[in-house]
Every structure is written in C-alpha cells, then in structure tokens.
Design brief:
Biased composition (Basic and acidic residues): 125-137
Radius of gyration: 21 Å
Helix content: 25-40%
Shape: globular
Strand content: 25-35%
Structural class: alpha+beta
Region (Disordered): 123-153
Largest sheet: 6 strands, antiparallel
Length: 316
C-alpha cells in the first residue's frame, strides 16, 4: 500500500517523500545522508513504512513514495487506522489491498512555488487530525467522481516548492488527466499539459516548464555543458541549445554532492536523458569559438533546484 505522507520518528513530525528526500541530500540539514524511520501517519497504526526511490541519487520516472512492508500487517486493524484507503467503502478486511491502492488517486499539486516559503514548522506541517479530515474529503470526492466519471485530482489544493514533485506528476499521469488538472506558477494558471513546453519551441512564450532530451554531458575541468538533442529554429537558423554549469555555482548549491554524482553519471550514461528547467527563459547569444562568431541558445539556470534530470533505466 502506497502513502504520500508518513510519520517520521527522528523529526517527530509528519513528512512527505519530497521533504524526506530534501532532508537526506541537503548538506545543511542535520539529517544529511541519514536514513530516517517512517511509519503510518495514523497514531492508532504506526506500522513501518519503506521509502521507495527517495534515497536514489539519479531520478527515474518512478514517483517517490512510502509503502508498507506488506498489506497484511496494515489491514489487521482497519477500523483503527485512518489511512487505509478503500474507495468503495467496503469491508477493509475483504478488499484486496493492492487493488484498492491502485484505485487511489495521487495528490497532484495545484501550485508550484518558485520561491521556497519561509514558514514556521507548525504552519508547514499538518497534524494527524487534519490528515484524517483530508482523507474524509478525498473519500467524499472519490464517491462523487465515481458517479460523475471525473477525476478526484481536480479537488487538490496543494502548494509545493519541490520541482521534482511537479515532474513526477507530469510523467506519471496520462494526457487526459494532465489536460484536466490546473497548475499555477508565478500567478499564471494553465493545465499541467499546457505548462510543459518542448525546449526547441521556447519562442512560444515565457513562464513555461521547458524540457527536452539531452546528449551525454561534456565536462570542462569542473564545469559542465548540457546540450539538448533538438535544436531551436530561430530567425531562419537552426541553433544549438545548451545549459552551462560552472564550478562556483555548483559549489554554492546546498545539494552539490548529489548534483555532482548525477552530473558524473550523465557524462557516461548511454540511455535516454530528459532535462527539465523552470524559472528562466532561454536567450539567443553570440558565442566566440576559435575566433569565429556563432549564435546559440543559452539557458542560464540560477536556482539549481529548478533543474531536474530524468534517466530512463530499468527499475530494480
């Protein structure tokens, strides 16, 4: 059974998978590279939950989450656990746990925050009771959606500053869902589907999440050059599009060790690599190569949290 929130023993608080991943890889975190203990959010349950893909350095299409070790140890006390999700509201003991969990709609954030909020701990995290209320609302929405044929995702009113979470939602939902669910970024509201723009079509406008396949990265000393496979057509010319990361920028990043591991793998990885970026608009610049002037499209990512790579590799 999958969970999108867990109780963390070490922090004595509720946590989502993206917060857990951030705590693990952030070098200014007291939990840097420490594997935390996760439990069911219900105070009446507290069975152990396993982190799925949360500690993996390179990110794949798999949506990170928590899960139970087995369905049996979680459903023995269904009336006491507030988090067992049964869409049809049948007897929890009789229902197949895996089948029920597959019916559950994942939380899709409705707003992406470009600036990380500086809220107090109590204002960020929810209590166990508030999560129970969320669950009841979700069940009511599920019943309404079952009769109307609509998705429960549209009832989401969740804000996030984790760019990886937005990418996970995009890569793990079908086109119909992505067109039906809205996302707000920097005051602009569009469907998830409309917010994602292939990098070669960047001239369609600013404020999108741009993405595209990239070739193997090239390393120049301690600097890295990321080149997109497809070129952009600008003023009648086909121009190369690149992202350049310099060593000073990487050193100042609070998750630099994780990023460096990912970048090193990108220099040798032979499979498909997708690159997503947001909060910056590509610009045409003149480049001097051995005395010859060329035009190229440059992407200057200022916040490295807004740069995400995805690897197509076989899951373990």
């Amino acid at each position: 059974m999958k969970f999108e929130k867990a109780f963390c023993v070490e922090t004595n608080d509720y946590i989502n998978p993206y917060e857990a991943r951030d705590l693990y890889f952030s070098e200014d975190s007291e939990y840097y590279l420490k594997r935390l203990t996760f439990q069911c959010p219900s105070e009446n349950c507290r069975v152990t939950l396993l982190p799925v893909a949360i500690y993996r350095q390179e990110k794949t299409k798999t949506k990170i989450h928590f899960r139970t070790k087995s369905s049996i140890n979680h459903i023995q006390i269904p009336k006491k656990c507030n988090y067992y999700y049964n869409v049809d509201l049948e007897s929890t003991i009789e229902v197949n746990a895996k089948k029920s969990n597959n019916k559950k709609k994942s939380i899709i954030p409705s707003e992406f925050l470009l600036v990380k909020p500086t809220l107090s701990k109590n204002s960020i995290r929810k209590t166990d009771n508030s999560n129970t209320n969320d669950r009841d609302t979700a069940l009511n929405n599920a019943r309404r959606s079952k009769s109307s044929g609509s998705s429960t995702n549209k009832f989401s009113n969740v804000k996030t500053h984790y760019f990886e979470q937005i990418i996970d939602c995009y890569e793990n939902n079908d086109e119909r869902t992505l067109k039906a669910v809205s996302l707000t970024i920097n005051g602009k509201k569009k469907s998830y589907y409309s917010f994602f723009k292939k990098s070669e079509y960047f001239q369609d406008g600013e404020g999108f999440i741009y993405w595209g396949g990239v070739t193997q990265l090239k390393k120049y000393g301690n600097n890295y050059k990321i080149k997109f496979i497809k070129k952009a057509w600008v003023n009648g010319h086909s121009l190369e599009m690149t992202i350049y990361l310099n060593s000073d920028q990487i050193k100042s990043y609070n998750k630099k060790n994780q990023l460096l591991e990912v970048l090193e793998k990108l220099t040798t990885f032979e499979g498909e690599i997708r690159c997503y970026f947001v909060g910056v608009y590509p610009k045409v610049e003149k480049v001097d190569v051995n005395g010859k002037i060329f035009e190229a499209v440059s992407v200057k990512v200022e916040n490295l949290d807004h740069l995400v790579f995805r690897f197509d590799i076989e899951e373990e």
